[in-house]
Amino acid sequence: MKTSPIRLKQKLSPKAAAAKKKRDIEYAKSPARKAKKAQNQRIGQRSDSDLHHTGSAVKRVSIKNNRGNFGRGTKNE
Questions:
Q1: Burial class of residue 49 (count of CB atoms within 10 Å of its CB; 0-12, 13-18, 19+)
Q2: What is the pTM of this model?
């Protein structure tokens, strides 16, 4: 069986992994992130697009454009 060259997990020490987990959870539970998650649930996510929160507005963007950096490619990000 072939393995993927893409690593899904970072190689971190147990101490660093615990610190990262704590930071990630704090960020995910921040008031701004909670508001965006609630707004996404109200709007409803679709399988053909992603939602972008720009200020007070939400813009629906095609997955092709979003993942391809809007025609500029992803190598220079």
A1: middle
A2: 0.54
* Cα–Cα distance measured from residue 29 to residue 27, given in angstroms and rounded to the nearest whole number: 5
- The string of pLDDT tens digits covering residues 36-54 is 889 888 888 888 888 888 8
CA atoms within 13 A on the CB side of 30: 9
Instruction: Give Dmax (Cα) for the chain.
Output: 48
Collect all residues with Cβ–Cβ distance below 8 Å to 58 and sequence separation of at least 6.
Answer: 39, 43, 51, 52
pLDDT tens profile 7-23: 557 788 999 999 999 99
